[in-house]
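Reopening this ticket.

The earlier resolution said the output was attached, but the attachment link was broken on my side. Pasting everything inline this time so it's all in one place.
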Amino acid sequence: NLILFNDATIYNPAHFFGLFSAFNPEQVKDVELYKSSIPAKFGGRLSSVIDINSREGNKKQLAGSAGIGLLTSRFNLEGPLVKNKSSFLIGARTTYAKWLLDILPDQYKNSRAAFNDFNVNINQELNKKNTLYLTAYMSNDRFNLNSDTFYNYGNRNISLKLKHVFNNKLNALVT
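Inline output:
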């Protein structure tokens, strides 16, 4: 299986034992799932490919959102860097699930579980036919069960992409 976020491989696509997606839903533009007839551009994968693309930030005005839930909080901010030419989109999420683990029996009182993720997307229109995209994605998951079982893993990805339009046909060059 191959999981891509803006053409960068994501190795751990879930948070908090699989209860949360590693992808902030407010950052996602579209998702494509290939289960058979996988295009050759994905390197001959046999099982499946999930290709996730983030959206561009607002090129006209500053906007944002935030939310607080029982287990997680989120923050998103987007806006123009140069009006109608470039934009940014920043998002972050974190969890504070200690209270949930505290209601478990006493034998698990030293257990901890947490995750966080951070996204940055910047795009710059160079001219009518060329646009440059910079994407950074970072995530971290930590868990310990009574101080005897511990894991910590994360994703760190940065991608730079140039999109060029040839004779009204769209072709993307990835670098």
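Reporter confirms the inline version is readable. The longest strand covers residues 149-166. The CA atoms of residues 92 and 118 lie 4 Å apart.
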